[in-house]
Design goal:
With about 1000 residues, the chain is α+β, with helices and mostly antiparallel strands. The protein has four domains: about 325 residues, Methylamine Dehydrogenase, Chain H (7 Propeller), CATH 2.130.10; about 300 residues, YVTN repeat-like/Quinoprotein amine dehydrogenase (Methylamine Dehydrogenase, Chain H, 7 Propeller); about 100 residues, Immunoglobulin-like (Sandwich); about 140 residues, Heat Shock Protein 90. Helix content is about 15%, strand content about 40%. The protein is built from nine helices and 73 strands. A hairpin with a 2-residue loop joins strand 22 and strand 23. The longest helix has about 70 residues. The N and C termini lie far apart (about 115 Å).
Length: about 1000
């Protein structure tokens, strides 16, 4: 035998796992079956080994690496950095009690602890097979020619192998397993060895030659102490054998000859059913002497079996040459031609008093025995005892007579024969929709006719045929124990017929509605299964139960009551249990929202088009409920519903921050400025992973639990820097919650501007800035007050100048006129002239006083002519001195800013008056020049002005100071040149951009 073949054989080694098994009372085809095929991309190498670790994950060893499976996602396992498996071809796995995983590869053994990978290199295939009660790992070796021994014990990092000297012959062992007593069984080419340290026994295989390889391919210890042996070759005496008390017994039952098979894999499950995997012929199951077969023609991924495995929830896993399969129990069991029925379409079901169930449909009538599955199915077929091709209705009366509607005839089945019942005129009854029996033993038949009629039969004779309008058109009926019958009408209403009178009870419903089945409950209420919901009548009260009350949809095809009084609704979208408490709540509150138990496709429910006949849902004597959906018959046992009581282990698998993955192990620190965070989690319930529900909460962000449904990711955006704890819990398909769940602590690191130090610095900066702004504001307020004070002072100074330069000067001039008049009081003419002059000066004083007051409200009057004002001032000054005066103007007069004009006038007037009063000059020259700038000059030939007065060091002389202040205010340049010899010259130059309008900003405030 080639080394490659030896290796392939050893890859198929098996070690049984502790778990509950699928129900062996059901056909394999009645299990829930899921297949993951290599051709669909689930695997990149043939799966060889399957194990489940303590954390709930399923591990699959393949020809190209190791996969981890949570029921939804296959994830390729990657070793830690710097480590790798001796080979990517994995032939065996062992899940240890401490949660670690032992991995047998083509070139050695590895141990994955969850954090570290430890390798035990070797030149041969090493397959972990068992963990004993002391936690010691036992490994099988592929070859013993080196004398190392076929069975090895792992001690820490070393191995001790047992071989020929320990009672294990040197040959190629293709199967090693350990029984419940602690003995190792080793299957070789020509013999089987039972071995334990210090004890061994060899059993030779009859007729097996040393060069026939493999001899034994797999072993499975049985509960009775015998050993099932699968042979790697076919032929008489081989195939499937049983070794019991040292004797070989071939397994042969009628219809099954195992000697024709090459048995590759064996599993004795917890229900003591033996599973047999073959090379090229799929799987067989042996239980209570019955053999069932299942292969690729029925959906198995492949026909060559490499491994069986039972998980913690009782699911059966099968690896094949083309994929992976899972079988599990279903709450709802289906019966079709795959389970032995001979009708391809089920129209009606009926429970008989002997415990059997009759199933009628196209071309056949089937009777199942009380054992409901493994009993022999009796079949009456068209042309073989069945007088027709369509069974429409079934019923058993009080006398045990079987009434059968076949096509358009009504028949009684007794003693293996059908006897027809005809109408009053001898014609056929018509297509039968339903049959019932009232308290007076009248048989009531609902016929589609023609014509449509309600027929009463007594003593096998038709007594009445009621048609419309005597009776409303009905589609279903049921007997009332108080007399008469209840009818479900084709328009969606209910009606009661008794004592020759029909009473109709109308409901609100959409058009084209019909009552598919009518049911009289044990409490006297009447229910109708309709296309728009469940309608009910109780003591005159009428109600409708729909999706608004919690139903998964509205269409109800059938209805039946169980032994507890609960209603079961066979709907278009699922099977619904309506408990008695829910019914009571609904009767009290028609709009109540009910929490209902719904069985869907994951529980075995199959949607159908619905049958047009009455017997859609019935209950057998043992409490099982049966339903017809026009395609298959389905059954559920309310008293023996299996519940998955194993709370699913919950795990956080990874954190993805801005598309970068982080392991949940250890200290998880997410980078600063992380925006998008995804947390992947899972729950390990492999039975129905599609119905696992999750809730999660992120402490530090979520205030309450978030309902995630079946979603296995949580998403967050813009998490602020800080410490968070993510907590997730989950429930299995039966609502069993793992409240502890799983949690993950992680940190979102702050950016430099999000650190506490930066925040403190920022606070300090803010406070400092606020203080600086406050101080600046205080200064601004102080400056504003100072400006206001300066403005007041300036205004007072201006008023002083105004009074000095105008009013005081005029009053002083008036005084001089008065003094001159007093000196010449004897001259009336002179006196009169002086008084007139005094009156004029006083009038001027009044005008100047008013002008000063007006100047407090406005800067100046509108543009008076500056040249005219200065000329008048020049002429008026001659009254103070008989000097000669001249006034000249150069350039064209231009519009000036009023304030500038007033100030220039005041400066010019003060200079002219000073020359007239104080200079003692004989000549005064005044000039005004309009050019690029405005210039004014006042010159005399008088005695000049003392230097002390020009410098402002002499008190009491405010004229020159006022002139300087006025010049500075309007941005002018004032120049005073004086000497005793040449007199005084006062000149003022104001830039044109200030003096004249239309040349830019004046700069005057």
């Amino acid at each position: 035998m080639s080394l490659l073949l030896r290796f392939a054989l050893l890859l198929l080694l098996f070690a049984p796992g502790p778990a509950a098994a699928v129900n062996p009372e059901r056909h394999i085809s009645q299990y829930g079956h899921t297949a993951w095929r290599t051709q669909d991309g689930f695997f990149n190498g043939t799966p060889y080994a399957i194990k489940q670790t303590a954390d709930g994950y399923l591990w699959i060893g393949t020809a190209n690496g190791l996969l981890r499976f949570d029921g939804v996602r296959f994830v390729r396992w990657t070793p830690p950095p710097g480590k790798q498996l001796p080979s990517s071809v994995i032939g065996g796995l062992l899940a240890a009690r401490d949660g670690s995983l032992w991995i047998g590869t083509m070139r050695g053994l590895s141990h994955w602890t969850g954090k570290d990978l430890v390798n035990y290199p070797a030149k041969v295939v090493m397959i972990p097979i068992a963990e004993d009660e002391n936690g010691t790992i036992w490994v099988a070796r592929a070859a013993v020619a080196d004398g190392g021994g076929a069975l090895c014990q792992v001690n820490n990092t070393a191995m001790r192998c047992y071989g020929k000297s320990d009672g294990i012959p040197e040959e190629i062992y293709t199967s090693v397993t350990r029984d419940s007593a602690g003995d190792f069984w080793m299957g070789g080419n020509t013999s089987i060895v039972r071995w334990r340290p210090g004890s061994f026994q060899t059993y030779h295989i009859n007729g097996m030659k040393p060069n026939v390889v493999p001899g034994v391919f797999d072993l499975a210890p049985a509960p009775d102490g015998s050993l099932w042996v699968g042979m790697g070759v076919s032929g008489p005496g081989w195939g499937l054998q049983q070794l019991s008390q040292g004797e070989w017994k071939p397994f042969v039952v009628p219809g099954f000859d195992s000697s024709t098979l090459k048995v590759h894999r064996l599993l004795m499950d917890r229900q003591n059913a033996l599973w047999v995997g073959t090379l090229g012929h799929g799987i067989y199951r042996i239980y209570s002497g019955q053999v069932e077969h299942f292969d690729s023609s029925e959906g198995l991924s492949g026909d060559t079996i490499s491994k069986f495995f039972e998980d913690k929830e009782g699911n059966l896993w099968v690896s094949t040459d083309k994929g992976l399969d899972c079988f599990r129990d279903l709450q709802i069991v289906s019966f079709s031609t795959r389970e032995g029925l001979t009708t391809p379409g089920v129209s009606t079901v009926q429970a008989m008093r002997d415990g059997s169930i009759w199933i009628g449909g196209m071309f056949a009538l089937n009777m199942l025995g009380p054992d409901l599955g493994h009993g022999r199915v009796r079949s009456l077929q068209e042309g073989k005892g069945l007088p027709g091709d369509q069974v429409t209705s079934l019923f058993e009366d009080h006398a045990g007579q079987y009434w059968v509607g076949i096509e358009d005839t009504l028949n009684i089945y007794e003693n293996g024969r059908f006897t027809g019942i005809t109408g009053q005129d001898g014609r056929r009854i018509g297509l039968i929709q339903g049959i019932t029996e009232d308290v007076d033993n009248n048989i009531w038949v609902l016929s589609l006719g023609p014509p449509r009629a309600l027929i009463r039969i007594f003593d096998r004779k038709v007594q009445e045929e009621l048609t419309t309008p005597q009776i409303p058109a009905a589609s279903s009926l049921v007997a009332d124990p108080r007399g008469g019958v209840w009818l479900g009408l084709i328009n969606g209403d209910l009606a009661r017929y008794r004592q020759g009178r029909a009473e109709t009870f109308r409901f609100e419903h959409p058009p084209n509605s019909r009552v598919n089945q009518v049911l009289l409950s044990s409490d006297g209420s009447v229910f109708g299964a309709t296309s728009y919901g469940l309608i009910g009548w109780l003591n005159g009260k009428q109600q409708t139960l729909t999706a608004r009350n919690g139903l998964p949809c509205d269409a109800v095809n059938g209805i039946v009551e169980d032994a507890t009084g609960a209603l079961w609704l066979y709907m278009q979208c699922g099977l619904v249990e309506l408990a008695r408490t829910d019914l009571q709540k609904w009767w009290a509150q028609p709009d109540a929202r009910l929490q209902l138990q719904v069985f869907d496709v994951f529980d075995g429910f199959q949607s159908g088009v619905g049958t047009p006949f009455e017997s859609r849902a019935v209950r057998t004597l043992d409490g099982r409920l049966w339903f017809a959906n026009y395609s298959v018959a389905q059954m559920i046992d309310p008293a023996h519903l299996s519940r998955n009581l194993i709370a699913p282990p919950v795990h956080v698998e990874q954190v993805i921050a801005d598309h970068k993955a982080f392991s949940p192990q250890g200290d998880v620190r997410l980078p600063a400025r992380t925006r998008d965070v995804e947390i992947d989690y899972t729950a390990l319930s492999l039975a129905v992973p599609q119905k696992v529900l999750f809730q999660y909460r992120l402490e530090g962000r979520d205030t309450d639990w978030q309902e995630a449904g079946t979603r296995r990711q949580a998403f967050y955006t813009d998490l602020r820097p800080g410490t968070y704890r993510f907590h997730v819990i989950a429930c299995n398909n039966d609502g069993i919650w793992n409240q502890q769940g799983a949690s993950l602590d992680f940190n979102v690191m702050p950016a430099w501007y999000q650190t506490i130090g930066f925040k403190l610095l920022f606070v300090v900066i803010i406070l400092t800035t606020a203080w600086a702004l406050y101080r600046l504001r205080v200064r601004q307020v102080a400056h504003a007050l100072a400006v206001r004070f300066d403005e007041r002072l300036a205004e007072r100074t201006r008023i002083a100048r105004e009074f000095h330069d105008t009013l005081i000067q005029t009053i002083q001039g008036s005084k001089l006129v008065a003094d001159d008049a007093l000196d010449q009081s004897a001259d009336p003419a002179r006196m009169r002239h002086a008084l007139k002059q005094l009156s004029e000066w006083l009038d001027r004083a009044v005008q100047e006083g008013r002008a000063a007051l007006n100047s407090l409200r406005t800067s100046a009057t509108e543009t008076n002519d500056l040249a005219e004002g200065l000329r008048r001032a020049t002429e008026e000054c001659r009254m103070f001195s008989p000097m000669e005066t001249s006034f000249s103007v150069e350039g064209d007069s231009r519009e000036m800013h009023p304030v500038v004009r007033d100030e220039v006038y005041r400066i010019g007037y003060e200079a002219i008056r000073n020359a007239s009063v104080h200079s003692k000059a004989s000549r005064l020259e005044v000039g005004l020049k309009y050019g690029q700038d405005l210039a004014i000059s006042v010159g005399d030939n008088g005695v000049g002005i003392p230097e002390s007065i020009i410098n402002g060091s002499t008190d009491g002389h405010y004229g020159l100071q006022g002139m300087r202040e006025r010049a500075a205010r309007i941005g002018g340049k004032l120049r005073i040149v004086s000497s005793v010899d040449s007199g005084t010259e006062v000149s003022l130059v104001i830039p044109g951009r200030i003096a004249f309008r239309g040349t830019g900003s004046t700069g005057i405030e």
